[in-house]
């Protein structure tokens, strides 16, 4: 019986065939050149299910080289089973080094979080995208949303926001809060919490977004304006944790996840970014 | 290679994989030989090849074994494997008149040139469980006797049946229109290499339908026949057989090279008539379906959907984007299943909104 290592050498480097990777890179360049614009691409099927990060993974696989160091997180965690599964696939088909430390990574593939540690110009953030079309909730036809983007006609979204405010006195968009990219394209930033949205504005790093099932690649290049949809009198708000602290590392200025203790029913909070939590603990000498 | 601390997620994945193998295997039984699946689960293999978009009976059989018979998983395995292969050639348009036919029927005409060939089908059998199959024994002599009892006797294998198309009869009488012909010189729009947008080129539409999931296509085709749409065709011809595949000669221009044959099911349906806007003639409209293997339900559904999309309208089955975007087994399966992934962050964001909304309603802030 072949070992996993031997077996996987029967596949091409980074799984995809070279012409496929080249096509993805070309589409990525186009995406970088037109910030926020969804570039259609063919999208190959991967050994990971559609809707489980195949858009992000195709970006990672097309960019990766021997000098790279990859970090994969799912909802902030390196240890989430899907993150592990994606990381294993990258490693098995490329042998590149992998890490859980945000600072050590050159490519960070993430589902639904931007790390708490500020990223640098040397790093690329790859976000997995389930629904790339920010207008989909107000217009089901792709044919029509393409026209709306062409005409920069985002009235339906402004109306949605206005109706939320009239009805509920604030915006109901939770994660994946729609943003305007450099004053031109409305963009779905992927289901990152609103907490992470401001990190995209005038960032020093490149963010690539890949939707495998919907076959779209788009990008936020460094130093691009990314502004959430908001009215002057109803400004965009991030999630509130009412000054709660992580029960593990004590951090307060981070995105927290709440959990209920099954024995006493008490609610406690923990950092969603597990690598950050570990780092803070290490610095305190607490691990 | 950097070392990543083995953590809970990693261990759980490994254990789950091993556990699944123990569910699949039983020491009292020999492990399933994929060649048994290939021969005795023939129609299932055909379905997987067509939904996986890869004509590879051996690999489809392996995929079925590996996935414990889950058709969605098996088609997914084939598609993922397919991604590792470069696209080297586009074949010429298949010459269906030269198909080595194993089955061919028409529900439009009783007498068709060459006659109706029922071929291997369960269509007119009674769906009674054959309990004798519970413990089936077959010797070489038994199989010979079975073959000898066929109308053509043992010769059946050597029969090389080719037929002209039934649609040709109507076309000769000026009663049937043509679908826009697919060019044989221009390569088709390749949906595995480019994302199509609606309205899709005809070659893209046919590819998407040919790879669609049988059940999903059947449901949409049925909806059109039943009332959410208007397509209720007559089958001009349904044929199953081995079609020769040729590719352009790599060096000699104008020459082609025969590379093998594929089993396909092809269906042409005859629909309502109307005035052809181009020719001004009153003609029947055609619906076209074709897929790998013997999968008649899918080929008929495809022909209905092809017609239904061309006619257009407000019903789901008449909307090209609706049909093409929702029949792909790999995409639909993946996205529905992704709900099993953790959504802790997004749900936390939702919790924040509902709590803030409640606060507002209770007069807070």
TrEMBL record, chain A:
A Pfam family: PhnJ
Keyword Lipoprotein recorded: no
BP-aspect Gene Ontology terms: organic phosphonate catabolic process
InterPro entries assigned: PhnJ (IPR010306)
EC number(s) on file: 4.7.1.1
GO molecular function: 4 iron, 4 sulfur cluster binding; alpha-D-ribose 1-methylphosphonate 5-phosphate C-P-lyase activity
Keywords: Lyase
Organism of origin: Geomicrobium halophilum
Domain of life: Bacteria
Protein name, entry field: Alpha-D-ribose 1-methylphosphonate 5-phosphate C-P lyase
Automatic annotation (TrEMBL), chain B:
Sorted UniProt keywords: Transferase
KW Transferase (keyword) present: yes
EC code: 2.7.8.37
One record GO biological process: organic phosphonate metabolic process
GO molecular function annotations of the record: alpha-D-ribose 1-methylphosphonate 5-triphosphate synthase activity
Protein name: Alpha-D-ribose 1-methylphosphonate 5-triphosphate synthase subunit PhnI
Organism: Geomicrobium halophilum
